[in-house]
Amino acid sequence: xxxxxxxxxxxxxxxxxxxxxxxxxxxxxxxxxxxxxxxxxxxxxxxxxxxxxxxxxxxxxxxxxxxxxxxxxxxxxxxxxxxxxxxxxxxxxxxxxxxxxxxxxxxxxxxxxxxxxxxxxxxxxxxxxxxxxxxxxxxxxxxxxxxxx
Length: 149
Hints:
Number of helices: 5
Mean pLDDT: 86
Shape: elongated
Distance between the termini: 83 Å
Strand content: 5-15%
Strand order of the largest sheet: 2-1-3-4-5
Helix content: 25-40%
Structural class: alpha+beta
Protein name: (2Fe-2S) ferredoxin domain-containing protein
Number of domains: 1
Oligomer: single chain
């Protein structure tokens, strides 16, 4: 007998930044996507995975959105946005969480909780001191070239 309702669903960003070696070198992006496509929930149902060309918070690449199952939604679960999803151990933790019910049905593992973000996340502003440091370096370099003390 098929369990009622829908399982959790995943939206995986794979656009200009997420899922690219240019932005996140050293990550097996295709292997990661393949592993995510193999996830099953506690009832043995396949967890649908959809890719998006851009979820809009590129500075937190790679981004995965976990949408609650029907049961999780009934218990108040809402989509959970996870940024910096680049380590294999995170897939293991996501697998366990989804298997246990996901958003609204099971507690979020600490490793994923550390990376929770939102669609409205703003890129952190650069420290003004860091900018000043660059300016000073540039001036120092120009002085050296011109021979001024």
